[in-house]
Design a protein that fits this description.
By secondary structure, the chain is mainly α. Strands 1-2 form a two-stranded antiparallel sheet. The protein has a two-stranded antiparallel sheet with strand order 3-4. A hairpin with a 5-residue loop joins strand 1 and strand 2. It is extended, with a radius of gyration of 30 Å.
Length: about 400
Protein backbone atom coordinates (compact mmCIF):
# COMPACT_ATOMS: atom_id res chain seq x y z
CA UNK A 1 0.00 0.00 0.00
CA UNK A 2 1.00 3.60 -0.60
CA UNK A 3 0.86 6.52 1.78
CA UNK A 4 -2.13 8.00 -0.05
CA UNK A 5 -4.11 4.82 0.71
CA UNK A 6 -3.17 5.30 4.35
CA UNK A 7 -4.62 8.80 4.16
CA UNK A 8 -8.07 7.42 3.34
CA UNK A 9 -7.82 4.86 6.15
CA UNK A 10 -6.56 7.56 8.53
CA UNK A 11 -9.48 9.85 7.69
CA UNK A 12 -12.01 7.05 8.07
CA UNK A 13 -10.69 5.61 11.35
CA UNK A 14 -8.40 8.07 13.13
CA UNK A 15 -9.17 11.67 12.11
CA UNK A 16 -12.00 12.16 14.62
CA UNK A 17 -9.51 11.94 17.53
CA UNK A 18 -6.04 12.38 16.03
CA UNK A 19 -4.12 14.68 13.70
CA UNK A 20 -0.70 14.14 12.21
CA UNK A 21 1.14 17.14 13.63
CA UNK A 22 -1.08 18.51 16.40
CA UNK A 23 -2.80 17.27 19.54
CA UNK A 24 -6.59 16.80 19.37
CA UNK A 25 -8.48 14.39 21.62
CA UNK A 26 -5.48 12.10 21.37
CA UNK A 27 -1.76 12.74 20.73
CA UNK A 28 -0.27 13.78 17.39
CA UNK A 29 0.64 10.64 15.45
CA UNK A 30 3.74 11.93 13.67
CA UNK A 31 6.77 9.98 14.93
CA UNK A 32 4.70 7.20 16.52
CA UNK A 33 7.01 4.51 15.09
CA UNK A 34 10.00 6.17 16.77
CA UNK A 35 8.17 6.31 20.09
CA UNK A 36 7.00 2.68 19.76
CA UNK A 37 9.68 0.83 17.75
CA UNK A 38 8.10 -2.59 18.41
CA UNK A 39 5.93 -2.94 15.29
CA UNK A 40 3.94 -5.94 16.59
CA UNK A 41 3.16 -4.09 19.83
CA UNK A 42 1.99 -1.06 17.83
CA UNK A 43 -0.27 -3.25 15.69
CA UNK A 44 -1.72 -4.91 18.82
CA UNK A 45 -2.34 -1.47 20.38
CA UNK A 46 -4.23 -0.18 17.34
CA UNK A 47 -6.34 -3.33 16.99
CA UNK A 48 -7.24 -3.83 20.65
CA UNK A 49 -5.71 -1.34 23.08
CA UNK A 50 -7.57 -2.86 26.03
CA UNK A 51 -5.47 -6.04 25.83
CA UNK A 52 -2.24 -4.05 25.72
CA UNK A 53 -3.31 -1.99 28.73
CA UNK A 54 -4.32 -5.14 30.61
CA UNK A 55 -0.86 -6.59 29.97
CA UNK A 56 0.57 -3.75 32.09
CA UNK A 57 2.55 -2.02 29.36
CA UNK A 58 3.95 1.09 31.08
CA UNK A 59 4.21 3.34 28.02
CA UNK A 60 0.61 2.92 26.92
CA UNK A 61 -0.82 3.02 30.45
CA UNK A 62 1.06 6.29 31.05
CA UNK A 63 -0.17 7.60 27.69
CA UNK A 64 -3.79 6.89 28.57
CA UNK A 65 -3.37 8.61 31.95
CA UNK A 66 -1.84 11.66 30.24
CA UNK A 67 -4.99 12.02 28.13
CA UNK A 68 -7.48 11.88 31.02
CA UNK A 69 -7.93 8.09 30.72
CA UNK A 70 -9.98 8.66 27.56
CA UNK A 71 -10.74 5.22 26.07
CA UNK A 72 -9.56 4.54 22.54
CA UNK A 73 -11.71 2.71 20.00
CA UNK A 74 -10.63 -0.73 18.82
CA UNK A 75 -9.95 -1.46 15.14
CA UNK A 76 -9.81 -5.23 14.92
CA UNK A 77 -11.03 -5.16 11.29
CA UNK A 78 -7.83 -3.42 10.13
CA UNK A 79 -5.31 -5.73 8.49
CA UNK A 80 -1.54 -5.45 8.91
CA UNK A 81 -1.37 -3.82 5.48
CA UNK A 82 -4.02 -1.27 6.49
CA UNK A 83 -2.15 -0.34 9.68
CA UNK A 84 1.17 -0.13 7.83
CA UNK A 85 -0.44 2.19 5.28
CA UNK A 86 -1.73 4.46 8.06
CA UNK A 87 1.69 4.49 9.75
CA UNK A 88 3.36 5.33 6.46
CA UNK A 89 0.94 8.20 5.92
CA UNK A 90 1.49 9.74 9.37
CA UNK A 91 5.25 9.42 8.97
CA UNK A 92 5.21 11.28 5.63
CA UNK A 93 6.09 14.99 6.10
CA UNK A 94 2.96 17.14 5.94
CA UNK A 95 3.70 20.82 5.28
CA UNK A 96 0.16 22.13 5.52
CA UNK A 97 -2.03 19.67 7.33
CA UNK A 98 -5.09 21.88 7.04
CA UNK A 99 -5.04 21.19 3.29
CA UNK A 100 -4.81 17.41 3.68
CA UNK A 101 -7.19 16.66 6.54
CA UNK A 102 -10.94 16.21 6.04
CA UNK A 103 -11.72 18.81 8.64
CA UNK A 104 -10.33 21.62 6.50
CA UNK A 105 -10.47 24.81 8.55
CA UNK A 106 -10.00 28.41 7.66
CA UNK A 107 -7.59 27.68 4.81
CA UNK A 108 -10.25 25.66 3.01
CA UNK A 109 -12.87 28.28 3.72
CA UNK A 110 -10.91 30.93 1.87
CA UNK A 111 -10.31 28.70 -1.14
CA UNK A 112 -8.28 29.63 -4.22
CA UNK A 113 -10.86 31.62 -6.19
CA UNK A 114 -9.24 34.88 -7.35
CA UNK A 115 -12.17 36.08 -9.43
CA UNK A 116 -12.90 39.05 -7.16
CA UNK A 117 -9.24 40.10 -7.22
CA UNK A 118 -9.20 39.97 -11.02
CA UNK A 119 -12.41 41.97 -11.14
CA UNK A 120 -10.93 44.72 -8.93
CA UNK A 121 -7.74 44.82 -10.99
CA UNK A 122 -9.80 45.11 -14.19
CA UNK A 123 -11.75 48.02 -12.72
CA UNK A 124 -8.53 49.79 -11.70
CA UNK A 125 -7.10 49.31 -15.19
CA UNK A 126 -10.30 50.68 -16.73
CA UNK A 127 -10.06 53.83 -14.57
CA UNK A 128 -6.39 54.27 -15.52
CA UNK A 129 -7.35 53.90 -19.20
CA UNK A 130 -9.98 56.65 -18.87
CA UNK A 131 -7.44 58.95 -17.20
CA UNK A 132 -4.84 58.30 -19.93
CA UNK A 133 -7.42 58.98 -22.65
CA UNK A 134 -8.26 62.29 -21.03
CA UNK A 135 -4.57 63.21 -20.67
CA UNK A 136 -3.98 62.31 -24.33
CA UNK A 137 -6.89 64.52 -25.38
CA UNK A 138 -5.55 67.47 -23.40
CA UNK A 139 -2.03 67.06 -24.82
CA UNK A 140 -3.40 66.91 -28.35
CA UNK A 141 -5.37 70.11 -27.71
CA UNK A 142 -2.24 71.89 -26.45
CA UNK A 143 -0.27 70.68 -29.47
CA UNK A 144 -2.97 71.86 -31.88
CA UNK A 145 -3.14 75.28 -30.18
CA UNK A 146 0.64 75.68 -30.50
CA UNK A 147 0.62 74.77 -34.20
CA UNK A 148 -2.40 76.93 -34.98
CA UNK A 149 -4.68 74.06 -35.86
CA UNK A 150 -8.28 75.16 -35.33
CA UNK A 151 -9.78 73.48 -32.29
CA UNK A 152 -13.19 71.88 -32.25
CA UNK A 153 -15.59 72.09 -29.38
CA UNK A 154 -14.86 68.96 -27.27
CA UNK A 155 -17.67 66.42 -26.84
CA UNK A 156 -18.74 66.13 -23.17
CA UNK A 157 -17.64 62.80 -21.65
CA UNK A 158 -21.24 61.74 -21.02
CA UNK A 159 -21.92 62.02 -24.78
CA UNK A 160 -18.59 60.57 -25.90
CA UNK A 161 -19.30 57.22 -27.59
CA UNK A 162 -15.91 55.80 -26.59
CA UNK A 163 -16.48 56.57 -22.90
CA UNK A 164 -20.07 55.33 -23.02
CA UNK A 165 -19.01 52.06 -24.68
CA UNK A 166 -16.19 51.50 -22.20
CA UNK A 167 -18.47 52.25 -19.25
CA UNK A 168 -21.12 49.82 -20.53
CA UNK A 169 -18.50 47.09 -20.98
CA UNK A 170 -17.21 47.57 -17.43
CA UNK A 171 -20.77 47.60 -16.08
CA UNK A 172 -21.56 44.44 -18.05
CA UNK A 173 -18.51 42.59 -16.71
CA UNK A 174 -19.07 43.60 -13.06
CA UNK A 175 -22.82 43.03 -13.20
CA UNK A 176 -22.35 39.70 -14.96
CA UNK A 177 -19.85 38.54 -12.35
CA UNK A 178 -22.18 39.22 -9.42
CA UNK A 179 -25.21 37.77 -11.22
CA UNK A 180 -23.32 34.54 -11.99
CA UNK A 181 -21.97 34.31 -8.42
CA UNK A 182 -25.44 34.87 -7.03
CA UNK A 183 -26.93 32.22 -9.32
CA UNK A 184 -24.22 29.69 -8.44
CA UNK A 185 -24.65 30.33 -4.71
CA UNK A 186 -28.45 30.23 -4.80
CA UNK A 187 -29.64 27.96 -2.01
CA UNK A 188 -26.17 27.41 -0.57
CA UNK A 189 -25.63 28.34 3.04
CA UNK A 190 -21.95 27.86 3.75
CA UNK A 191 -20.99 29.44 7.14
CA UNK A 192 -24.69 29.76 8.07
CA UNK A 193 -24.77 29.89 11.88
CA UNK A 194 -28.21 30.61 13.39
CA UNK A 195 -28.82 31.11 17.10
CA UNK A 196 -30.69 28.15 18.60
CA UNK A 197 -33.43 28.19 21.28
CA UNK A 198 -31.01 26.45 23.67
CA UNK A 199 -27.26 27.07 23.55
CA UNK A 200 -25.94 23.57 22.90
CA UNK A 201 -22.15 23.31 22.81
CA UNK A 202 -20.72 20.44 20.78
CA UNK A 203 -17.34 21.49 22.17
CA UNK A 204 -18.51 20.59 25.70
CA UNK A 205 -20.40 17.43 24.77
CA UNK A 206 -18.42 15.89 21.89
CA UNK A 207 -15.08 17.55 22.73
CA UNK A 208 -14.56 17.84 26.49
CA UNK A 209 -16.88 14.99 27.55
CA UNK A 210 -16.13 12.74 24.55
CA UNK A 211 -19.74 11.83 23.86
CA UNK A 212 -19.82 9.86 20.61
CA UNK A 213 -21.73 11.59 17.81
CA UNK A 214 -23.79 8.45 17.22
CA UNK A 215 -25.10 8.46 20.80
CA UNK A 216 -27.26 11.48 19.94
CA UNK A 217 -27.44 11.11 16.16
CA UNK A 218 -28.02 7.36 15.94
CA UNK A 219 -29.85 7.72 12.64
CA UNK A 220 -26.55 8.55 10.93
CA UNK A 221 -25.58 4.86 10.96
CA UNK A 222 -29.09 3.42 10.67
CA UNK A 223 -30.78 5.41 7.92
CA UNK A 224 -30.91 8.35 5.57
CA UNK A 225 -31.28 11.11 8.18
CA UNK A 226 -28.93 11.80 11.08
CA UNK A 227 -32.03 12.94 13.07
CA UNK A 228 -32.39 15.54 15.82
CA UNK A 229 -31.94 13.86 19.22
CA UNK A 230 -35.09 13.51 21.29
CA UNK A 231 -35.24 15.33 24.63
CA UNK A 232 -35.20 11.94 26.36
CA UNK A 233 -31.62 11.48 25.15
CA UNK A 234 -30.68 14.84 26.67
CA UNK A 235 -32.37 13.93 29.94
CA UNK A 236 -30.45 10.66 30.21
CA UNK A 237 -27.59 12.81 31.48
CA UNK A 238 -29.29 16.01 32.60
CA UNK A 239 -31.54 14.34 35.16
CA UNK A 240 -28.35 14.22 37.19
CA UNK A 241 -26.40 17.13 35.69
CA UNK A 242 -28.38 20.27 36.55
CA UNK A 243 -25.60 22.87 36.43
CA UNK A 244 -22.58 23.79 34.35
CA UNK A 245 -19.68 23.80 36.78
CA UNK A 246 -16.60 23.85 34.53
CA UNK A 247 -15.11 27.23 35.47
CA UNK A 248 -12.03 26.64 33.31
CA UNK A 249 -14.08 26.41 30.11
CA UNK A 250 -16.42 29.38 29.86
CA UNK A 251 -19.05 29.36 27.15
CA UNK A 252 -19.28 32.12 24.54
CA UNK A 253 -21.49 32.80 21.57
CA UNK A 254 -19.95 33.66 18.23
CA UNK A 255 -20.35 37.39 18.93
CA UNK A 256 -18.35 37.07 22.17
CA UNK A 257 -21.31 37.11 24.56
CA UNK A 258 -20.75 34.88 27.59
CA UNK A 259 -23.34 32.16 28.14
CA UNK A 260 -24.63 30.92 31.48
CA UNK A 261 -24.48 27.15 31.05
CA UNK A 262 -26.68 26.45 34.09
CA UNK A 263 -29.40 28.75 32.76
CA UNK A 264 -29.36 26.85 29.44
CA UNK A 265 -29.88 23.57 31.32
CA UNK A 266 -32.88 25.17 33.07
CA UNK A 267 -34.28 25.98 29.61
CA UNK A 268 -34.06 22.29 28.80
CA UNK A 269 -36.06 21.50 31.94
CA UNK A 270 -38.75 24.03 30.95
CA UNK A 271 -39.14 22.32 27.56
CA UNK A 272 -39.25 18.78 28.99
CA UNK A 273 -41.41 19.64 32.00
CA UNK A 274 -38.80 18.23 34.39
CA UNK A 275 -38.81 19.53 37.97
CA UNK A 276 -35.28 19.07 39.40
CA UNK A 277 -36.51 19.58 42.97
CA UNK A 278 -39.23 16.93 42.81
CA UNK A 279 -37.08 14.87 40.41
CA UNK A 280 -40.01 14.06 38.15
CA UNK A 281 -41.83 15.37 35.10
CA UNK A 282 -44.27 17.67 36.87
CA UNK A 283 -45.00 20.23 34.11
CA UNK A 284 -46.38 20.20 30.60
CA UNK A 285 -43.63 19.57 28.00
CA UNK A 286 -43.31 21.57 24.79
CA UNK A 287 -41.23 20.99 21.64
CA UNK A 288 -37.98 22.82 20.98
CA UNK A 289 -38.08 24.73 17.69
CA UNK A 290 -34.51 24.04 16.57
CA UNK A 291 -33.33 26.05 13.56
CA UNK A 292 -32.27 23.80 10.71
CA UNK A 293 -28.73 24.42 9.42
CA UNK A 294 -27.93 21.79 6.77
CA UNK A 295 -30.50 21.43 4.02
CA UNK A 296 -30.02 19.73 0.65
CA UNK A 297 -32.37 20.40 -2.30
CA UNK A 298 -35.37 18.06 -2.54
CA UNK A 299 -34.08 16.49 -5.76
CA UNK A 300 -30.85 15.32 -4.12
CA UNK A 301 -30.59 11.90 -2.49
CA UNK A 302 -28.13 11.59 0.39
CA UNK A 303 -27.95 8.67 2.79
CA UNK A 304 -26.02 9.12 6.04
CA UNK A 305 -25.70 5.41 6.79
CA UNK A 306 -24.18 4.69 3.40
CA UNK A 307 -21.41 7.20 4.07
CA UNK A 308 -20.90 6.39 7.76
CA UNK A 309 -21.24 2.58 7.71
CA UNK A 310 -20.23 1.58 4.18
CA UNK A 311 -18.00 4.53 3.31
CA UNK A 312 -16.41 4.70 6.80
CA UNK A 313 -16.46 8.50 6.69
CA UNK A 314 -15.94 10.54 9.86
CA UNK A 315 -18.53 13.19 10.72
CA UNK A 316 -15.81 15.84 10.38
CA UNK A 317 -15.52 15.16 6.64
CA UNK A 318 -18.70 17.12 5.97
CA UNK A 319 -19.24 18.97 9.27
CA UNK A 320 -15.73 20.19 10.06
CA UNK A 321 -14.22 20.02 13.55
CA UNK A 322 -17.62 19.75 15.18
CA UNK A 323 -16.00 18.73 18.48
CA UNK A 324 -14.50 22.25 18.72
CA UNK A 325 -17.64 24.25 17.94
CA UNK A 326 -19.80 25.98 20.53
CA UNK A 327 -22.37 27.15 18.01
CA UNK A 328 -22.71 24.89 14.98
CA UNK A 329 -22.34 26.34 11.50
CA UNK A 330 -22.43 24.88 7.99
CA UNK A 331 -18.83 23.95 7.27
CA UNK A 332 -19.08 22.95 3.58
CA UNK A 333 -21.16 24.52 0.82
CA UNK A 334 -22.62 21.05 0.01
CA UNK A 335 -22.66 21.91 -3.68
CA UNK A 336 -22.73 19.26 -6.39
CA UNK A 337 -19.13 20.11 -7.31
CA UNK A 338 -18.04 19.66 -3.69
CA UNK A 339 -19.67 16.21 -3.53
CA UNK A 340 -18.29 15.11 -6.90
CA UNK A 341 -14.75 16.17 -5.99
CA UNK A 342 -15.02 14.14 -2.79
CA UNK A 343 -16.19 11.10 -4.78
CA UNK A 344 -13.30 11.53 -7.21
CA UNK A 345 -10.64 11.84 -4.52
CA UNK A 346 -11.90 9.59 -1.70
CA UNK A 347 -10.42 6.11 -1.70
CA UNK A 348 -12.85 3.42 -0.61
CA UNK A 349 -11.95 1.03 2.20
CA UNK A 350 -12.47 -1.75 -0.31
CA UNK A 351 -10.95 -4.74 1.45
CA UNK A 352 -12.48 -6.25 4.59
CA UNK A 353 -15.69 -4.36 3.84
CA UNK A 354 -18.73 -6.55 3.15
CA UNK A 355 -20.56 -3.71 1.42
CA UNK A 356 -18.12 -3.90 -1.50
CA UNK A 357 -17.84 -7.70 -1.65
CA UNK A 358 -20.00 -7.86 -4.83
CA UNK A 359 -17.43 -5.89 -6.87
CA UNK A 360 -15.53 -9.02 -7.93
CA UNK A 361 -13.94 -7.33 -10.96
CA UNK A 362 -12.19 -4.70 -8.85
CA UNK A 363 -11.18 -7.20 -6.16
CA UNK A 364 -9.44 -9.19 -8.91
CA UNK A 365 -7.73 -6.06 -10.22
CA UNK A 366 -6.36 -5.29 -6.77
CA UNK A 367 -4.55 -8.63 -6.55
CA UNK A 368 -0.78 -8.64 -7.12
CA UNK A 369 -0.93 -11.73 -9.31
CA UNK A 370 -3.56 -13.60 -11.34
CA UNK A 371 -3.80 -16.83 -13.30
CA UNK A 372 -3.11 -16.74 -17.04
CA UNK A 373 -4.73 -18.95 -19.68
CA UNK A 374 -2.34 -21.78 -18.79
CA UNK A 375 -3.26 -21.61 -15.11
CA UNK A 376 0.06 -20.10 -14.11
CA UNK A 377 0.31 -17.25 -11.60
CA UNK A 378 1.63 -14.10 -13.29
CA UNK A 379 1.90 -10.43 -12.34
CA UNK A 380 -1.43 -8.64 -12.66
CA UNK A 381 -1.15 -6.25 -15.65
CA UNK A 382 -4.29 -4.38 -14.60
CA UNK A 383 -3.43 -4.02 -10.92
CA UNK A 384 -5.13 -1.17 -9.09
CA UNK A 385 -3.55 0.21 -5.91
CA UNK A 386 -6.83 1.66 -4.68
CA UNK A 387 -10.47 2.21 -5.58
CA UNK A 388 -12.16 5.61 -5.48
CA UNK A 389 -15.89 6.25 -5.19
CA UNK A 390 -15.84 7.40 -8.81
CA UNK A 391 -14.40 4.04 -9.91
CA UNK A 392 -17.48 2.19 -8.64
CA UNK A 393 -19.90 4.65 -10.21
CA UNK A 394 -20.03 7.36 -7.54
CA UNK A 395 -20.24 10.19 -10.09
CA UNK A 396 -23.09 8.75 -12.16
CA UNK A 397 -26.06 11.14 -12.23
CA UNK A 398 -28.64 8.60 -11.07
CA UNK A 399 -26.69 7.86 -7.88
CA UNK A 400 -27.93 11.16 -6.41
CA UNK A 401 -30.68 12.15 -8.86
CA UNK A 402 -32.71 9.06 -9.60
Amino acid sequence: MKAQDGKALFQANCASCHAVNKVLTGPALAGIEERVPDKKLLHDWIRNNAKVLASGNKYFNDLKAAYNNTPMSTFEALSDADIDAILKYVSTPVKEEAKTTPTGGEGEEKGSDNSLLFGILSLILAVITLILLQVNSNLKKLSDDKEGVPAYEPVPFYRNKTYITLFMLVLFVIGGYYIIQGAIGLGRNKNYQPEQPIFYSHKVHAGTNQINCLYCHGGAQLGKQANIPSLNICMNCHMAINEYSDKSEKLYREDGTEVNGTAEIQKLYSYTGWDPKQRKYANEPKPIEWVRIHNLPDHVYFNHSQHVVAGKQACQTCHGEIQKENEVYQFADLSMGWCINCHRETKVQFTNNKFYSIYEKFHEQMKDSIKNKDGEMVANPHKLDSITVETIGGTECQKCHY
